[in-house]
Amino acid sequence: MQRTSLAESWNLDQILDDLNEFGFALVDDVYSNEYVQSLVHECTSHLAEFRAAGVQNGVVSHIRSDHILWIDGQLPIAQQHIKALEEFSQALNQAFYLGIKEVEAHFACYNAGEFYALHRDNPQQKNDRIISTVFYVHESWQEDWGGQLRLQDKNGQWHIIQPSPNRLAIFQSDLLHEVLRSKQQRLSITAWLRSGGSIWNQG
Ligand code: OGA
Ligand code: MN
After folding, report:
1. Distance from C-alpha of 10 to C-alpha of 40, rounded to nearest angstrom
2. Domain assignment of residue 103, yes or no
C-alpha cells in the first residue's frame, strides 16, 4: 500500500505559517483514497479491541466517553500515518526547534452520544506532548452530526472544526479544546509529537 508522499500532498509552508500565527493548522485531502480506504478497514476491523478511554487505574472519568486502541506494529496501515508524522516532525524541528523525538498515537471511536470535555493534552507540561494531531478516519461526515473539534487558538480565538474525512488537524498540545457530542460513529487517529522522556502520563 503506497501512501502519497508527504512532500507532494501537504502544503508544508502553509502549515508552518498557520502554526506560527495561530498555533493550529488544518490539512485537507491528506492521503490517497486507496490509503484512506485501507485505514478505515484496519480501524473498523479492530473495533472490538477498543477500550474505554475515560478509565485510568480503574477510575472512571466523566470527562470523555470515547474508546481507544493504541497503535503499535500490529496495525501496519496506521503505522504509515505515524511514519508521515515522523517526517513532518523533522520539518517542525527544523522550522521551530521543537525537539520532537517521538510520535505516540491511538485510534479513537466516539459512538453516538459520546464527547470529550474541554481539556489540554499537556496539562502542566508534564507529559512531553508538544504538538497534537487528529486525523479523521470515517468515510463521510455531515455538518449536523455534531462531533466537531472546538479549539481556542493561541490568540484566544475559538474555532469550530468539522471532523471532515481525510482531514488532519494539527495544534499545540497546550491549547484548550474539546470534542462536541457526536451523533454518529466518529473515527479518528489522535497522535502526539513528543519530546521524549516520561511516558507515565499517557491518557
Ligand atoms: C484528543 C482530542 C480531538 C478530536 O484525543 O485528545 O482532543 O477532534 N481529540 O478528536
Ligand atoms: Mn485532546
Report:
1. 21
2. yes
CB 80 within 8 A of CB 34: no
Task: Determine the distance separating the centroid of ligand 1 and the alpha carbon of 176, expressed in angstroms.
Answer: 11
Provide φ and ψ at 54, rounded to 5°. -85, 20
Angle at 131 between CA 194 and CA 109, to 5 degrees: 95
- The boundaries of the domain holding residue 173 are 23-52+62-194
- Residue 55 is predicted with a pLDDT of 73
Helices (H), the chain: 6-9, 12-22, 33-44, 76-96
Asked if 192 and 143 touch (Cβ cutoff 8 Å), the reply is no
Instruction: Indicate whether 197 pLDDT > 80.
Output: no
In a domain, 34, yes or no: yes
Output the 3-class SS for 169-190.
Answer: EEEECCCCEEECCECCCEEEEE
With respect to residue 89, please indicate whether it lies within any of the assigned structural domains. yes
Task: Indicate which residue's Cα is closest to atom 5 of ligand 1.
Answer: 190
Q: Which pLDDT belongs to residue 172?
A: 97
State the ligand closest to the CA atom of 106.
Answer: 1
Q: Is the CB of 24 under 6 A from ligand 1?
A: no
pLDDT tens by residue, 123-137: 877 789 999 999 999
